[in-house]
Amino acid sequence: MDTTRGEMMDEWVKRLTGRFVVIDGPDGAGKSTQIALLCDYLTAGGADVVRTFDPGATAVGGKIRAILLDHDSGPISPMCETMLFMASRAQLMEEIIKPALDRKQVVVCDRFVTATIAYQGAAGVNVDTILTVADVAIGGLWPDLTIILDVPVSLTRQRLGGRADRIEARGDDYHARVREGFLRQAATSPDRFAVVDAAAAVDRVQEQMRSILKTHAWGKR
């Protein structure tokens, strides 16, 4: 074994104890692939990792997710979407995220409030309203760090191909606003956000994510 790397990972694991990390970004950014690689890497380094996703991951959340994404649900107002996402998120926080953090595990979550700000914000919901409702839903327990995987709309369309849920199927103008919404959040709060060019090769994206996590100055909860 590489002793130097092992010593570095020991320190890395200590810094991650009890931390809440979110990976977010536009549809087609490759979040699932990158989160799997990252969690495997952290686990191999000795971290006790809990991987989850939003919306869903709980029985109630799974049902809400189906309503939100299924074309058969018909028209859903942006505010209704916002409240459904928050309901799922409240259960996720109570059932999975908070208990894991209380156990000093590392939580890595696929999407969180950042997505609602980007997607429902792009549909016209006031961002301050989203933040106010979100703070209630998550009990004020915000992520320590959110990594945004950034990709242009043209590339997301290529990656998604013909697969598109109810929200993914919206037009390019909408998804361009979504992308802007993600980047605006990162620019506004650089202490809690980082942006990665997810148009790069898979291994390069993963390298950037690991580097960010190792060097990021963690903000106060």
Polypeptide structure, described:
The protein has helices spanning 3-16, 31-44, 59-69, 78-102, 113-122, 127-137, 153-160, 172-188, 202-215, and strands at 20-24, 49-53, 106-110, 145-150, 193-197. The protein is of the alpha/beta class. The protein has one domain (17-215): Rossmann fold, CATH 3.40.50.300. A five-stranded parallel sheet has the order 2-3-1-4-5, with helices on both faces. The N and C termini lie far apart (36 Å). Residues 1-7 have low confidence and may be disordered.
What is the string of helix and strand elements? HEHEHHEHHEHHEH
Distance between the termini: 36 Å
Q: What's the arrangement of strands in the largest beta sheet?
A: 2-3-1-4-5
The DSSP helix count reads 9
Residue fraction in strands: 5-15%
Sheet with the most strands, sense and barrel status: 5 strands, parallel
Spatial extent as radius of gyration = 17 Å
Q: What is the approximate shape?
A: globular
The first-level CATH class name: Alpha Beta
- Helix vs. strand class: alpha/beta
Poorly predicted runs of 5 or more residues: 1-7
What is the third-level CATH name, the topology?
Answer: Rossmann fold
Rounded mean pLDDT is: 89
Topology:
Layout: H1 3-16, E1 20-24, H2 31-44, E2 49-53, H3 59-69, H4 78-102, E3 106-110, H5 113-122, H6 127-137, E4 145-150, H7 153-160, H8 172-188, E5 193-197, H9 202-215
Parallel strand pairs: 1-3, 1-4, 2-3, 4-5
List keywords for this structure.
single chain; 221 residues; alpha/beta; Rossmann fold; five-stranded parallel sheet; 5 strands; disordered N terminus
